[in-house]
Specification:
GO terms for molecular function: DNA binding; transposase activity. It comes from Methylomagnum ishizawai. Residues 110-287 form the Transposase IS4-like domain. This is Transposase DDE domain-containing protein. InterPro entries: Transposase_11. The chain has 308 residues and is of the alpha/beta class. The protein has a domain at 106-268. The chain is built from ten helices and six strands, in the order H-H-H-H-H-E-E-E-E-H-E-H-E-H-H-H. It has helices spanning 4-19, 37-46, 55-65, 76-85, 87-101, 171-184, 209-219, 237-246, 248-259, 271-294, and strands at residues 109-119, 134-138, 142-153, 159-166, 200-201, 223-224. Strands 1, 2, 3, 4, 5 and 6 form a six-stranded mixed beta sheet that branches. Strand 2 and strand 3 (142-153) form a beta hairpin. Helix 1 (4-19) packs across helix 2, helix 4 (76-85) packs across helix 10 (271-294) and helix 5 (87-101) runs parallel beside helix 10 (271-294). The longest helix is centred in the C-terminal third of the chain and has 24 residues, at 271-294.
């Protein structure tokens, strides 16, 4: 285990050494901020741990314990504004981590969707994100209000790309946008990551022979999905168990995002802040894998990484 200050130092050094060169040139936005871009990105990523409870909880912790490392920490409203403005830098840092951790020997990527609730679905009124977040179904939560998050995960648990849409969005249309953005490197969707030269393994939400043929021919994306039970070409039980076994890694990643990095506790007031925090969670997940490898620990052993 390491203490949180050591973790924060390692994260800051990684951001400075590996990620900073990938950021777009900084444009003047009025008076200079109290924090550097590297400090903002570092704090945005580190603040996603579940133990802080919320952005407000992390800011209180930073005020009490991190003033020595960040003496120019601004007031909370300006700090939140700096994180929203740093969204592109956080996304570039996530891509950097995904590329550093990607292994040429990886044989597949698991593609899966998960719920990102933002509000109790039973509450009245439109909420903070009308027209953006909506009602969808999750096998884990039932009906929920929020967003549908699509993840691509390597065999070791590295998140190689992600995107999100309203909760009602279906898996196939989201995968269509995801594969297209990877194939053509769409700057409007910077977090989808690089195109994969390996098959994508998915669940039945991505089924459809026409979809698969289209993705293969137009985007070079080979998708492996178990057929329906009543299919003319059903899989054996052994094949289904094999696919479920190699897809288990994405379930583990989803569990970490929900329970260790507060994905289940997001209550955004505007889309930019939500996007910045989701991207910071993915970057934190990947950085923990990088640090565990440096420390000779299992990649996904996050629980005992830091001695709180």
């Amino acid at each position: 285990m390491i203490d949180f200050e050591t973790f924060l130092t390692a994260l800051y050094v990684f951001v400075e050494d590996f990620c900073k060169s990938r950021w777009a040139p900084e444009r003047s936005r009025g008076a200079p901020a109290g924090l550097t871009r590297s400090e903002v990105v570092t704090l945005a990523i580190a603040g996603q741990w579940e133990c802080f409870g919320s952005e407000r909880g992390f800011y209180r912790y930073a005020q009490r314990h991190l003033r020595g490392a960040f003496p120019r920490l601004p007031d909370r409203s300006q700090f939140n504004r700096l994180i929203r403005l740093a969204q592109d830098d956080i996304a570039a840092s996530f891509r950097c981590l995904a590329e550093v951790l990607r292994e040429p020997a990886d044989l597949f990527e698991a593609l899966d969707g998960t719920a990102a609730p933002t509000r109790d679905a039973k509450r009245r009124g439109l909420g903070w994100l009308p027209g953006l977040a909506d009602i969808g179904w999750s096998n884990r939560l039932g009906w929920f209000e929020g967003f549908h998050l699509l993840l691509a995960v390597g065999p070791a648990g590295v998140v190689t790309g992600f995107g999100f849409a309203p909760a009602s969005a279906k898996d196939q249309p989201m995968a269509e946008t995801f594969f297209a953005a990877r194939h053509r490197a769409d700057a409007r969707l910077p977090t989808v990551g690089l195109s994969a030269d390996v098959p994508y393994v998915t669940d039945k939400g991505f089924e459809g022979e026409d979809w698969h043929a289209h993705w293969r021919e137009d985007y070079g994306a080979e998708v492996i999905t178990p057929p329906k039970r009543n299919s003319r070409k059903p899989w054996s039980r052994a094949w289904r168990r094999w696919l479920a076994g190699i897809r288990q890694v994405v379930e583990t990643v989803n569990g970490s995002l929900h329970h260790m990095f507060r994905l289940d506790r997001e209550q955004p007031h505007e889309l930019g802040g939500f996007a910045a925090r989701i991207t910071a969670k993915m970057a934190l997940h990947n950085f923990c894998i990088w640090l565990n490898r440096k420390l000779g620990r299992p990649s996904l052993a996050f629980v005992e990484l830091i001695s709180w």
